Amino acid sequence: MKKREQMIKAAKAAMIHVMDVSAEDRVLVVTDQAKRRIGQAFAEAAQEIGCTVTLIELDEKSRPLKEPTPEMMARIGGITAAINAFSARAEETPFRIKWIKALLSTRTIRVGHAPGITEDMMLHGPMNIDYTYMMNLVQKAMEAFENAQSVHILSPAGTDLFLNIEDRSFATDVHITPDHFGNLPAGEIWCAPHEDSANGTLVCDGSIGDLGTVPNPVSLKIERGKITSIECDDPSLKAKLQELLSVDNEASIIGEFGIGLNPGARITGNLLEDEKAFRTIHIAFGNNEEMAGGKNRSKTHRDFLVKDPTVKIIYKDGTERVLMDKGEMKLE
Question: What are the b/e assignments for 3-38, b being 16+ CB within 10 Å?
Answer without folding.
Answer: eeebbbbbbbbbbebbbebeeebbbbbbbbeebeeb
